[in-house]
Amino acid sequence: MVRGISRPLTTHPQRDGDERPDDDEFTVRRTPGEGKIMKVLVIGGTGLIGSQVIANLTELGHQAISASPRSGVNTVTGEGLAEAVAGADTVVDLSNSPSFDDEPVMNFFTTSTRNLLAAERAAGVQHHVALSIVGADRAPDSGYMRAKVAQEKLIVESGCPYSIVRATQFFEFVDAIADSATDGNTVRLPDGAFQPIAAKDVAAAVTQATISDPTNSISNIAGPEKRGMDDFIRTALAASDDPRQVVGDPTAQYFGTRLDERTIVPIDGEDPTIYPTRFSDWKAPRARSGAHEA
Question: Which has the minimum average pLDDT: 1-10, 43-52, 153-162?
């Protein structure tokens, strides 16, 4: 069953291998008789994904509340947490660690998740939704990925009804990935498979998970184009008339790990949902307006 109001949001997803749908709209469907207006607490609701999830839920008629340290809710210290989750039907965790170093990032995700789940149990929250990363469990050399896997494990073992959405990297971070790998005029990147997705599509998937019943499982979402990371970003930089030269290097690392053809893309058996927004279509209006995504 799906709780919500049937209205278009952003894009129409498809299962891997399905033909592209005729329209580009993602419709939230509901079972006849369902239509409960929910109170949803969005941890990290001011971020790239969180702000769009808040907007989507509000458009659907739900009460969506943003929570962050700036609003007095700190999932690491627990400050304001009990008050924030009180009365919430669903909690969506889109928070991110302020540090990506191994120890701090592990501490952030494990501490904040334990605190959040404990507060939800005390408040009787019916559904915990979390955003994670496709292939996190295939990148054990990355401290960040290990922390995301630890977060997932805490959720799965908590006994709380949950839905975990794993997404590939976002189009919005392509420039930042290139910048982090730049030395002079050279961008040295892994040549392993890369299948990024638009943030609006991630937000649509998280919104769908939020208004649906808990799956008590992990789902995977990705964009429609899979290429080597070096090749993808080479094309992206060329589209922006960026003069930097991209060099594919199989020994180069991403978040502390090497990439192969399976590491951070959906693999056989994961039944990913593929969203239709292509990078060129996402990039075109930004190029016209002169916007720079980072």
Answer: 1-10
